[in-house]
Amino acid sequence: MRSSLSVEDFRGRLTELTNIGEPIINGTPFAIMTVFDSPKSLFYGQFDKESFRLTSNGLTHITPYIIDGTFTQTDNGTEVNYKIRKIWFGYLWIRLLPIIAILSFNLVFVKEMGRFGLVVFIPINLFLLLLFIPIILTNVKKKRLEELFIKHFEIN
Fold it and tell me: How many domains does the chain have?
């Protein structure tokens, strides 16, 4: 893909829009460890003279994807090659946590069935079903991450 920015402008945008850090950490539940990094920038990641690894910058809504790519100078802009790949730990965390939570609760409930009735069982299971919302939102987050990248780096 081609960006209308020059290489110097592209690097300048990377500097301006990126908090420096390991993007794999920010795409997992361990993103809480970056709480003291101010999330002022749009992206979180690393870059050098000709490559970059970026993810979205945020603590509460992790995006388990990284934009991994390179850029080079061309005659009338910058050639940008990138792939969006999964951060496997964050991706699996989002998918497995709801299943583990529901199974754990239901195992405890079956074991202690005499003390609790359906009055407790049904509302708590309905609440635990809300844990499946992030699974649905991961594809939306991936698309949003790519849209932000394309918009801010003027990629055609």
Answer: 1
Q: Are 54 and 149 in contact (CB under 8 A)?
A: yes
Phi–psi pair at 99, nearest 5 degrees: -65, -45
Q: Would you say 99 and 107 are in contact if contact means Cβ atoms under 8 Å apart?
A: no
Task: Report the chain's terminal Cα–Cα distance, integer Å.
Answer: 6
- Strand, helix or coil for residue 102: helix
pTM exceeds 0.70, yes or no: yes
Q: How far apart are CA 43 and CA 22, in angstroms?
A: 11
Alpha-carbon gap, residue 105 to 150, rounded angstroms: 43
Domain membership of residue 137 as a residue range? 2-152
User: What burial letters (b/e) apply to 77-107, b meaning 16+ CB within 10 Å?
Assistant: bbebebebeebeebbebbeeebeeebeeeee
d(C-alpha 69, C-alpha 93), whole Å: 25
pLDDT digits (tens, 9 = 90+) for 27-55: 777 776 666 666 678 898 999 999 999 99
CA atoms within 13 A on the CB side of 116: 16
Residue pointed to by tokens 């529901």: 102
